[in-house]
TrEMBL record, chains A, B, C, D:
Catalytic activity: (6R)-10-formyltetrahydrofolate + H2O = (6S)-5,6,7,8-tetrahydrofolate + formate + H(+)
Active site positions, chain numbering: 237
Domain ACT: 8-82
Enzyme Commission no: 3.5.1.10
Protein name per Swiss-Prot or TrEMBL: Formyltetrahydrofolate deformylase
Reported function: Catalyzes the hydrolysis of 10-formyltetrahydrofolate (formyl-FH4) to formate and tetrahydrofolate (FH4).
Gene3D superfamilies reported for this sequence: 3.30.70.260, Formyl transferase, N-terminal domain (3.40.50.170)
HAMAP family in the cross-refs: PurU
Residues making up the signal peptide according to the UniProt record: none
Similarity remark: Belongs to the PurU family.
Molecular function terms, GO-annotated: formyltetrahydrofolate deformylase activity
GO BP terms, alphabetized: 'de novo' IMP biosynthetic process; one-carbon metabolic process
Keyword set, alphabetical order: Hydrolase, One-carbon metabolism, Purine biosynthesis
Length: 293, 293, 293, 293
């Protein structure tokens, strides 16, 4: 067993005394060696993430999961939890359109082993990025979408999204990454993929929701531009925020300058958000996240 | 004459060729020693700021102003310009309510000679900050405003703002700083003080306009909070932005944490914006600014 | 008893399994309501900070301290710990020279209740800042130091530092803050005040140790300047770092510009570092710190 | 002729009055439309960069160069200048070892048209990155270097560097980018390639020069780590700095965490520095740079 293999427990429930003691006591009795432990309590809710050395326990992840289930039960029906094994690789599918920068960045990180994930497929509504994807040995699926003037646009979209859904679901991925995918995910997919569909929006939300955020930013004359990585929900650009960051612009930056410079922050923010998601560091509660970095 | 005394020319007009040559030629003929020169052209408009060593010219600021007027005239009626003299101190009046942090910060900077300004008065709609102001030897004017449940609230506000206006205008200040002044400036004062009334808003605008921005930010779960220094206009929190900055927050930050931590960025952003305004580094064009830092 | 009164336990010892369980179990048995809990393990050492609601325990801080001592004992002679009570205000003494900005900033934060501390005295080796200090109702002690050309400089310094020591020690302060104090603390005072003497150095250490760091930075042509808050040790500018931050400069920034702009980051970094120290968030281990922000 | 083609003049000389007027007058007489103009004066030296619309001049870059030479001559033998044409692509060669992240990032930016450069070749002292390079259609040259225990290490290095030199010089590149090339460039190559050889060092220089900067940073317990893009000179890690940036770390970051997180800042800082170099925005003066961003 690899030396740095971990079992990761995430758990949340209504706040009360004794939760930390119960969970850490449970792990201590088993001889579990905790390498990372983080807690948060707020708005009357409690959250924790514990990473335990796999080789410190006398059994595997399934047994740990079974035993932890009993502990979690003590905290009532609202308790939410999972136990994952860093030895079992996570899987992801990427959705793209034409902008290559986020895709290129993620492919580089994945191929360099920087992100703990297997990339099963990339789906594009245009073919532009097929070559880049296939050069990395990843299957590219082209699912065309109807153009803006197509008279049967709405039906066409439904059909296209159905194809996307079938491809995605065939992999049961842990993350469906909208890496500058320029189509609005329908509500039923947001729901089906809740907590797994990760979007990068090229503004500091809630500023400049919707289309052409850099144009909006230029128009308003802001002195910083940003990017937001969030879970996709039916409410456009309003899902739980995982990560945000900004860079400074000034009067000399045209819209194309902002587009170009913003790519640097989009790449970073998406890569960070995705990493935290894959490492089970993000706990969603209502429309907010607790991120145990 | 002080060695570092400067005459500062700011100028803007519709863009065309030869403007830089005309202005720099004008200064060169006079033997003017340019110590700072900045240009910007965008959206078909041209902007420049030139700082000339006062001792390099054979005459004073009035003569320079008179001669430059002739140059500016060549660029048509839309040209906007001014010539200021760093040897003539600028004046400011501050408007405050109860929050001391921006006031305290500005008083410290002014008394340490860090900001090139004479503070003529501080006006407060509460008396809380009178002691702090008077300890710095600055007159404090208390102008009470009607409370939220006062039946004659609207008339009362009109009368109070009229008193504020009289005090402010008695100093003809170069800057009227709303240093966390919790009353909305009426449209006619925004207009009268256009380009001189500087507000600090405790959010990264256009996010979280209006009341209680930190509560809004906490509610939305953003990962950065910010502050915006802008010229006050009749359109609330929508005036030309001079400066913005942000700091990172996380799930552990409560609203009071955000309020406390946000003060650090409010102080900085206001002090920077005010400095640039006082140094004639901010040129307003439409609803945007060119800031020659 | 105030609602937000906390008992804060900090504890560190050689790492092993079961520490979290033991401490949280101990608190759970007492019914302790943990409002903040942070852990870190690294380099074979374990660190934790726990904040417990005072009103959740059936006794006061002395009893908690006595009981926790028994728990701590189980982890051997290398275990280091303390239990503090946020209801008992911490005390600080400030040492200054002539630069007012850090002093002014801290006085403002303290008078606004932003920093949980009582300021017992300010000691200056020059009298320049006496007025500012006394305006805040804080006693100022002037302890002159011999000038650089004084033939008895060394003896004079010994005598001056002895006076400083006497004043400081008369308050037994929790923090001795060198707020731009331009004298090098002798080794025996660094030792006596180990873990309590907090310095702000105006560079991003370890760059530009020693004198005139902004001159050094300008000379080297760096693109960022910084400030470092650290515990003072006998090894000049090499003590455990509590906090650092930087701001961007460019070729247009002269040394005086850097000095002026650097003040903004010195103020912030010192205020943050001092806050974390006062809130018992900083655990020193060797020459490094664990900061549970 | 492309609409956005520019001729870019960079010029520096001992400071005096009238330089701006002379250069802008020269351009105005020709009808030159200046789209970007930046000036800096400091340490008695004057610097400028002017970008002129190519289609606003009645002749090509060679004629402009010839005419500008006469203007530059007026400012004495110390004046340094060049005139470049954005319509003529710049060329670059990259030197790499095994770390892929900077290489991958630059390949992505170049293939997306984000950096105005033609990449002629990548030279590696290991073969690891050949596949990545060739997938982008760029020739990869493997030049092995002697290992650390090779008895003829010194001679071997001389021979290897001679091969590197031959390959590089065969392209006469405008930029020789050391994209995490883990061999120290010999003094004669630093000299031959002065102002063209660009290195990325994985620390905030002058902190942590030399080998294993992240280990040094971890050892010192700094709270920020950085990266520095600079021109290579014979004095290791001491050349003129083009760009620097930092990211926050804390006690939880191990050396491998710093290595991983530092990559994000290395990539960005190198890409920014290279872009400014390629756009003729960097003027070197002594051991410092003026960067007209």
């Amino acid at each position: 067993m690899e030396l740095d293999r971990r079992y990761v427990i995430t758990f949340s429930c209504p706040d009360r005394t004794g939760i930390v003691a119960r969970i850490s006591g449970f792990l201590a009795e088993l001889g579990g060696w905790i390498v990372e432990a983080a807690y948060h309590a707020g708005d009357n809710w409690f959250f924790t993430r514990q990473a335990v050395r796999a080789d410190s326990l006398p059994f595997g992840v399934d047994e740990l999961r079974a035993r932890f289930a009993a502990v979690a039960d003590e905290f009532g029906p609202e308790a939410t939890w999972q136990v994952t094994d860093t030895g079992v690789p996570k899987h992801a599918v990427l959705l793209v359109t034409r902008e290559p920068h986020c895709l290129h960045d993620l492919l580089g990180r994945i191929s360099a082993g920087e992100l703990p994930v297997t990339l099963d497929a990339v789906i594009g509504n245009h073919e532009d990025l097929a070559g880049l994807v296939e050069a990395h040995g990843v299957p590219f699926h082209h699912v065309p979408f109807p153009g803006p003037r197509d008279p049967k646009k709405e039906q066409g979209k439904v059909a296209s999204f159905e194809k996307v859904r079938q491809i995605v679901d065939s992999f049961s991925p842990d993350a469906i990454v909208l890496a500058r995918f320029m189509q609005i995910l329908p509500a039923h997919l947001c729901e089906e993929w809740a907590g797994r569909a990760i979007n990068i929006h090229h503004s500091f939300l809630p500023s400049f929701m919707g289309a052409r955020p850099y144009h909006q930013a230029h128009q308003r004359g802001v002195k910083l531009i940003g990017a937001t990585c969030h879970y996709a929900t039916a409410d456009l650009d309003a899902g739980p925020i995982i990560e945000q960051d900004v860079i400074r612009v000034d009067h000399g930056d045209t819209v194309p300058d902002m587009v170009r410079r913003g790519r640097d922050i989009e790449r970073l923010v998406l890569a960070r958000g995705l990493r935290w998601h894959l490492e089970d560091r993000v706990l969603v509660h209502g429309n907010k996240t607790v991120v145990f970095r």
